[in-house]
Amino acid sequence: MHGTFARRTLITATALGLALVAAPATAHAQSAPGTNAPVRVSLTVQGPDGILFKGKIRTRGHDVTTTTGGTHTCDGTNGGANPSAVPTPTAALDDAAHRRHFTWDGAWYASFDDYSVDTIKNVSGGASAYWNISVNGTPTPVGGCQFKLNAGDTVAFTWTAF
Questions:
Q1: pLDDT tens digits for 74-123?
Q2: Which Pfam families does the record associate with it (predicted)?
Q3: How far apart are CA 25 and CA 37, in angstroms?
Q4: I need a labelling partner for 162 at 20 to 30 A (CA). Which of 33, 84, 91, 128 fits?
């Protein structure tokens, strides 16, 4: 009986050890290729006088170009926020603007490695307001090029008075 218990314990320990050794490699292999795979999100742009844009958009992290800020990476690796490229709120705004033919602009801040969204559809924050970015109803704790989006997220750029 003691030999059977010892064998079961050894087999269980060996199986668990193999599973633990294989798990990180398996998890990494599954998530690495699709890290910056396009995701579909709901995007709303709410200006001071109502909705400026509302729709579903397919997006992934990519380089973004604005008139004021120039061209910079906007793929979640900004500021070291994510180890690899991911879809982001500002990339989603940029994709929506290109596909639905509206404009947006923002300054680039090298110290933050991110854009500030200053104007959407000719509505600017100015001295008394700013464009707040939220995902699933919560303001993002980092910039719009740093926050990772997941499929089905609800992204909102809301004109917010001080």
A1: 999 999 999 999 999 999 999 999 999 999 999 999 999 999 999 999 99
A2: DUF4430 (PF14478)
A3: 20
A4: 91
